[in-house]
């Protein structure tokens, strides 16, 4: 089954932190899990900091943030 979950909210409300934790928990249940950070104001705030950790867990990150540094 394919599922897409969108996390939305106000600036600074913890969307990215929630999303990172959510995808880690999903990975415990499913083989194929991905996270896509679509924040255009600060696209590499938290998910970029956790990119290597998430990839080591086998979580797909469709866009590499290495070109943003």
Low-confidence stretches: 65-69
Mean pLDDT: 78
The coarse overall form would be globular
Fraction of helical residues: 25-40%
In short:
28% of the residues lie in helices and 0% in strands. The protein has helices at 15-27, 51-56.
What does this structure look like?
The model is unreliable at 65-69 (pLDDT under 50). Helices cover 28% and strands 0% of the residues. With 69 residues, it is mostly helical. It is globular and about 30 Å long.
Q: How do the strands and helices of this protein lay out in sequence?
A:
Layout: H1 15-27, H2 51-56
For this entry, give a set of tags:
mainly alpha; 2 helices
